[in-house]
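Tip: read the tokens left to right.
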């Protein structure tokens, strides 16, 4: 229900503004639009906790995009302000399609499209977890990630190649909001901006937050970079 209104009211103007900004015509307007919300980026991992940046440095990537996380690890995704992204479980066979419940298999986790929140899953076994961003065209531009992907066969690289092969033919997905639960890893809570309390308790974390202006302004550039990276990946 969010998607159409969101795209029309927010995303398209934002992308349009970013494009103008890239041409240097509306720099001051874009600068004044900076949102003064403290959104932490992923802190360093600690025992039992692993952290992933969503839309790292304004690019259409998860960073790190594939991790090895033992059972019981809490993996937390840090969403930036600006352009909305999602962490949506999919399958190796269908990288850009949400993993719906089927037969005796439960549905995947899904943050839904979000900005400025954190979303955590608890790893429940050592099987691979595949996920993608359901924002329009992001998955087909390679915005995918994995947890416990094997080193051979169905690797993270093969998964990302499959997403890139879909490219612009990637089906547009609906966003029905957050879904808890999941397969091989479960979310027990919906996304929320809960990191500020823990972040203030951490004395050593340096501020490396990127402003929303930067994220927005680099969105179009990121699209191009990701597209080029996709082409390179095939050569
Ligand atoms: C993660 O799940 C395991 C069971 O699979 C549970 O024992 C553990 O307490 C959970 N961790 C957190 C932080 O909820
Ligand atoms: C779940 O489904 C698979 C195949 O779809 C089947 O092999 C398996 O026996 C089923 N397990 C249960 C507990 O029903
Ligand atoms: C990332 O995926 C590759 C396979 O594509 C694997 O060999 C590597 O170990 C993975 N990295 C991590 C940190 O799990
Ligand atoms: Cu995205």
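Filled-in amino acids:
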């Amino acid at each position: 229900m969010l998607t159409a209104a969101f795209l029309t009211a927010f995303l398209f103007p934002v992308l349009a503004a970013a494009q103008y900004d890239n041409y240097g015509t509306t720099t001051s307007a874009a600068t004044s639009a900076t949102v003064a919300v403290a959104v932490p980026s992923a802190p360093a991992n600690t025992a039992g906790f692993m952290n992933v940046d969503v839309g790292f440095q304004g690019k259409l990537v998860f960073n790190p995009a594939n991790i090895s996380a033992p059972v019981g690890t809490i993996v937390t995704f840090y969403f930036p302000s600006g352009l909305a992204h999602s962490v949506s479980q999919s399958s190796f066979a269908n990288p850009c399609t949400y993993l719906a419940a089927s037969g005796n298999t439960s549905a995947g986790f899904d943050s839904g499209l979000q900005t400025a929140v954190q979303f955590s899953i608890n790893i429940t076994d050592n099987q691979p977890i595949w996920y993608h961003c359901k924002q329009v065209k992001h998955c087909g531009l390679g915005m995918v990630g994995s947890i416990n992907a094997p080193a051979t066969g169905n690797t993270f690289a093969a998964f990302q190649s499959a997403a890139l092969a879909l490219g612009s033919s990637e089906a547009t997905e609906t966003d029905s909001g957050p879904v808890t639960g999941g397969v091989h890893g479960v979310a027990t809570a919906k996304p929320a901006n809960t990191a500020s309390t823990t972040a203030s308790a951490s004395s050593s974390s340096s501020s490396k937050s990127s402003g929303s202006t930067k994220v927005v302004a680099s969105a179009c550039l990121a699209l191009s970079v990701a597209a080029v990276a996709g082409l390179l990946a095939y050569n």
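Residues 2-22 form the longest helix (21 residues). The longest strand covers residues 49-54.
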